[in-house]
């Protein structure tokens, strides 16, 4: 029973949203609102499905006691790249010349397993 | 059914680099959580200084401490900062720190994207604040920046662009963190930690993160629309996009109010239970009403658009008023916990107790403004300012302080000073009510919000003076708070503090089962996970121990109880 609860919570919550949306339809609203909220209900059910998939494959509760071995070093360069991409919208798209390579480097670092540092 | 424990041979705990580099690149949820919490507290002080500037300007009619152009920037960054950069990130940061501990997990589900989320939040905050450093100034069209006011015709300059970038980055950051916290609760719980044994705080994070997933993408869509409009303001010649922006914005804007509420409500709930020495009353009803409450809160956004005359007012006022039902259930749970509890009046408990009536004032005036007939009178007035400061400051921020006093010893290993804590508390109670209660009167008498001054014939002078005096009391209280924190941290560094027990409050949930502060992997062979038998495992402990001695066999034990700690940690 409990194995079902985790994804059930998400699915149930999405359905509650769908319920309120259908009541709104009785009152009537701008069509973009239906798309917006309908899209959110769909997104939530997708999340519920992902949770279901993962709990169907694995156990409900975890015995594996493991923490990640990978460094978070790529996070800061990636965030700077995102900032520069954002700024390019205010200060000109030439900033992308800096942003995109930086993003590539960050992604490269993230993909590399070797940067994990030493084990204890 | 639980699965038997398996040891994990591939345990490859990494040593993080020492010093500040280790913090910048950390994947330890406790460090990421602490960075988030500390950053948002620093920003709380900065945004508070902006509030003081406003209260200085408004203390008397016709003052000119700052001009209108500056005033607009100050209230915009104060409001945006408090919402996007303080109350929301602090709430999620609490989840990042506490949820893995509370569910008995060694780590967050996706630690690296969580760290990315933190950095996006920090750089977003910098971008927003940098507006003050450029000649044309920071954003000045309010925390919801409606077009056409916020487009490049009416708000020229780079400041509003920096605001759009900053808000978008912090929103993406919060989304990444919320995803990690949600997945951790749903999929990384320890053996025995079923969904219905989650502490109330972890449950609040489930609903909070669901709201973030459902609502924050809509904010991003609104920001993209605004960015397009700043490129080509002609877009907003069409009413469709002006109203469209309001829908997109408030579809995020109302739920975020609950993102800034549930985690603090739940922190208060845990504090109430612990300082009453009993289980939280009506656990299952509370959990269910949290879920319903959160879902309903996704349906009320149109109450911010009543006066546009272009929203389905009947529907939104119906759903807004329906919110009283689950809210009543939460209040019932809190009061039920108090009744018959043996109350211990420590600082966290004082803040939790004050939260209850003060948030109620905010909530009830919210129902008033959720009624179109009243809203048409008070909209865009100081009544609204009073209403949301009662919810956000007298409510949620009191929950925030309850959380700080309660979990500070967990996080740092030292206690905050009780005497200073109590001074802080009383200054805040007096200050908050003195500041925000007069604002209801001002709004009712017709003082509009977002004005930098008023005339002496308006008759707003006395109430404004009271509010500004209240702000001074609040400032004094916050100085005491800062002194208290710095003093404890300094004493810890110097040593010489009396050793503190790991669970100084006799708290009930798993984060208190390990050492304070917890080791990198949260639970170790010396500090193993206790058996998880309910939503208050540490309260069960004596009973469970008795059981281990054979006193009450089978009463609370679960099949497949956790295996030996050494095996589980793989050490
Ligand atoms: C957690 C704490 C707080 C939060 C979340 C918060 C939030 C907000 C928000 C969202 C706005 C609206 C900005 C806008 O109109 O776009 C605002 C305005 C304002 N706040 Fe706060 N605030 C907090 C604390 C305070 C404190 C402590 C004071 C007084 C000492 C204060 C005084 C003001 C004033 C004077 C305004 C401007 C009202 C106007 O001109 O319309 N706030 N705040
Ligand atoms: Cu609302």
Tell me how many strands of chain B there are.
Answer: 0
Q: Give the CATH topology of the largest domain in chain B.
A: Cytochrome C Oxidase, Chain A
Largest interface: A-B, 65 and 92 residues
Q: What is the approximate shape of chain A?
A: flat
Q: Could you tell me the number of beta strands of chain A?
A: 0
Hetero ligands = protoporphyrin IX containing FE, copper (II) ion
Membrane topology (chain B): Multi-pass membrane protein
Protein name (chain B): Cbb3-type cytochrome c oxidase subunit I
Subcellular location (chain B): Membrane
GO biological process, one term (chain B): electron transport coupled proton transport
Any overview of this molecule?
The complex is a heterodimer of chains A (120) and B (571). Chain A has 4 helices and no strands. With 120 residues, chain A is mostly helical. The longest helix of chain A is centred in the middle third of the chain and has 27 residues, at 31-57. Chain B contains 18 helices and no strands. Chain B is globular and about 65 Å long. With 571 residues, chain B is mainly alpha-helical. Chains A and B meet through helix 1, helix 2 and helix 3 of A and helix 4, helix 5, helix 6, helix 7 and helix 9 of B. Bound molecules: protoporphyrin IX containing FE (HEM) and copper (II) ion. Chain B: Residues 23-533 form the Cytochrome oxidase subunit I profile domain. Chain B: Residues 508-571 are annotated as: Disordered. Chain B: It is found in: Membrane. Chain B: The chain crosses the membrane at residues 32-54, 82-103, 115-134, 162-186, 198-229, 249-273, 285-303, 315-338, 350-368, 388-408, 420-442, 462-486.
Describe how the helices and strands are arranged:
The complex is a heterodimer of chains A (120) and B (571).
Chain A lengths: L1 H26 L3 H27 L17 H17 L4 H16 L9
Helix pairs in contact in A: 1-2, 3-4
Chain B lengths: L18 H6 L4 H30 L9 H35 L8 H20 L28 H29 L12 H32 L7 H21 L2 H14 L7 H15 L15 H10 L1 H15 L8 H23 L2 H7 L3 H31 L5 H28 L15 H34 L42 H12 L16 H5 L2
Helix pairs in contact in B: 2-3, 2-4, 2-16, 3-4, 3-5, 3-6, 4-5, 5-6, 6-7, 6-8, 6-9, 8-12, 8-14, 9-11, 12-14, 12-15, 14-15, 15-16
Bound molecules: protoporphyrin IX containing FE (HEM) and copper (II) ion.
């Amino acid at each position: 029973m409990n194995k079902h609860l985790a994804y059930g919570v998400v699915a149930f919550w999405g359905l509650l949203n769908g319920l309120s949306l259908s009541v709104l339809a009785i009152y009537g609203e701008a069509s973009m609102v239906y798309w917006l909220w309908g899209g959110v209900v769909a997104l939530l059910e997708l999340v519920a499905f992902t949770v279901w998939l993962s709990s169907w494959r694995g156990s409900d509760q975890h015995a594996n006691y493991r923490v990640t071995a990978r460094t978070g070093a790529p996070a800061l360069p990636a965030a700077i790249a995102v900032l520069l991409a954002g700024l390019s919208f205010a200060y000109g798209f030439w900033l992308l010349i800096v942003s995109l390579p930086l993003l590539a480097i960050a992604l490269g670092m993230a993909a590399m397993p070797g940067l994990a540092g030493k084990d204890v | 059914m639980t699965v038997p424990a398996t040891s994990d041979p591939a345990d490859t705990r990494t040593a993080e680099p020492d010093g500040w580099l280790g913090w910048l690149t950390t994947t330890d949820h406790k460090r990421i959580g602490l960075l988030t919490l500390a950053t948002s507290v620093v920003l709380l002080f900065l945004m508070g200084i902006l509030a003081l500037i406003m209260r200085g300007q408004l203390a008397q009619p016709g003052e000119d401490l700052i001009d209108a152009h500056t005033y607009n920037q100050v209230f915009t960054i104060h409001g945006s900062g408090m919402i996007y950069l303080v109350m929301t990130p602090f709430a999620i940061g609490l989840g990042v720190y506490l949820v893995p501990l509370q569910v008995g997990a060694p780590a967050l589900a996706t630690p690296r994207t969580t760290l990315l989320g933190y950095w996006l939040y920090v750089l977003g905050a910098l971008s927003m604040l940098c507006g003050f450093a450029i000649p044309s100034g920071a954003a000045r069209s309010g925390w919801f920046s409606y077009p056409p006011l916020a487009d490049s015709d009416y708000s020229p300059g780079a400041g509003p662009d920096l605001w759009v970038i900053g808000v978008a980055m912090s929103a993406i950051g919060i989304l990444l963190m919320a995803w990690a916290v949600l997945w951790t609760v749903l999929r990384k719980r320890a053996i025995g930690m079923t969904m219905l044994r989650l502490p109330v705080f972890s449950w609040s994070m489930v609903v909070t993160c669901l709201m973030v997933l459902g609502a924050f993408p809509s904010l991003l869509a609104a920001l993209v629309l605004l960015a397009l409009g700043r490129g080509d303001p002609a877009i907003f010649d069409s009413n469709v996009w002006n109203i469209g922006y309001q829908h997109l914005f408030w579809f995020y804007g109302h739920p975020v109010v609950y993102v800034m509420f549930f985690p603090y409500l739940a922190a208060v709930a845990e504090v109430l239970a612990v300082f009453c020495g009993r289980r939280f009353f009506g656990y299952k009803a509370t959990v269910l009403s949290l879920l319903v409450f959160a879902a309903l809160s996704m349906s009320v956004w149109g109450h911010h658009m009543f006066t546009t005359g272009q929203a389905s007012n009947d529907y939104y006022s119906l759903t807004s008023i329906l919110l009283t039902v689950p809210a009543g259930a939460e209040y019932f749970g809190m009061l039920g916990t108090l009744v018959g509890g043996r109350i211990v009046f420590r600082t966290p408990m004082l803040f939790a107790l004050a939260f209850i009536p003060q948030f109620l004032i905010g909530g009830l005036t919210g129902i008033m403004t959720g009624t179109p007939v009243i809203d048409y009178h008070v909209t865009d007035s100081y009544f609204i300012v009073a209403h949301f400061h009662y919810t956000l400051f007298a409510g949620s921020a009191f929950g925030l302080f309850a959380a700080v006093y309660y979990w500070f010893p967990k996080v740092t290993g030292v206690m905050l000073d009780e005497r200073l804590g109590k001074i802080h508390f009383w200054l805040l109670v007096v200050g908050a009510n003195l500041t925000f209660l007069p604002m209801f009167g001002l709004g009712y008498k017709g003082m509009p919000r977002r004005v930098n001054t008023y005339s002496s014939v308006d008759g707003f002078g006395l109430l404004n003076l009271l509010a500004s005096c209240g702000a001074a009391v609040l400032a004094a209280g916050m100085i005491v708070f800062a002194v208290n924190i710095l003093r404890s941290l300094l004493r810890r560094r110097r040593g010489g503090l009396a050793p503190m027990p790991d669970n100084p409050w006799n708290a009930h949930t798993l984060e208190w089962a390990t050492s304070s502060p917890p080791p990198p992997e949260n639970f170790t062979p010396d500090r193993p996970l206790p058996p998880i038998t309910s939503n208050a495992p540490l309260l069960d402990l004596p009973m469970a121990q008795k059981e281990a001695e054979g006193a009450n066999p089978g009463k609370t034990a679960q099949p497949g109880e956790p295996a030996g700690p050494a095996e589980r940690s793989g050490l």
